[in-house]
Amino acid sequence: MDAAAAPKPKRKPAKKRKRKVGRPRAEISLARYRRLCMFQFTDEELAAALNVSKSTIIQLRKEPAFAEAWERGQAEGRVRVKRRGFELMKLNNSAGVQAWREHTRFYLGWTEKRLVELTGQNGGPIQHVDLSKATDEQLAALEALFGPLALAASDDGGDQGGADTAGDRAGA
């Protein structure tokens, strides 16, 4: 038999290795992540600092270790903001204190709200009178009585209510 005509032994096909698709998994240090969380970064800023996408940050936060690191980092950051404010107040640096106050409004949620409570006589509720069932004569009498008071108190020119008069229409 001729060697050229002899059948060649069949080779087993080589196993194809599966290629990994997508980006390689980001290696993010838990300690670095926590340190960055102390700066009160938004998800976008945190993603930029770690060179990953925002969705990666959101997925990381679902892992218990990273969720705890985020909470602790945020808490430590708030403590640092407070501590820095007290340091600035010791220096008598008004510009620094003003900047600190603005940061506390944003990071700590501090606001300067005033509580305004309106009460009626002797601390009771404010009395309301339903005038929807009053007659036209009664309403005209009330307007004659209280209309001049409303006009005298009007510094801003706002609508004081009452009937629409010809003079009001002419000015409009």
Topology summary:
Layout: H1 30-37, H2 43-50, H3 54-60, H4 64-91, H5 94-108, H6 136-153, H7 166-171
Helix pairs in contact: 1-4, 2-3, 4-5
Structural features, described:
- By secondary structure, the chain is mostly helical.
- The chain has a domain at 30-108.
- The protein is built from seven helices and no strands.
- The chain has helices at residues 30-37, 43-50, 54-60, 64-91, 94-108, 136-153, 166-171.
- Helix 1 (30-37) packs across helix 4 (64-91), helix 2 (43-50) crosses helix 3 and helix 4 (64-91) runs antiparallel to helix 5.
- The radius of gyration is 37 Å and the shape is elongated.
- The model has no long low-confidence stretch (mean pLDDT 78).
